[in-house]
Specification:
Elements: H1 3-17, H2 21-32, H3 34-49
Length: 50
């Protein structure tokens, strides 16, 4: 594996650790209902994977 792969993995891991706007959205939706929170979290993670 090249260095680019490890840089990509590092950036993705860093993105998971740093709370940002997606964290606020997931938190807000979680206070409404569990299902809404799970859907918001799934959407945020899908966005990070793209």
């Amino acid at each position: 594996m090249g260095i680019n792969w490890w840089v990509f993995v590092g950036v993705v891991c860093l993105a998971y650790l740093i709370p940002g706007p997606d964290f606020a959205v997931v938190l807000r939706e979680s206070t409404r209902s569990r299902r809404a929170g799970l859907l918001a979290a799934a959407g945020a993670q899908a966005g990070l994977c793209v």
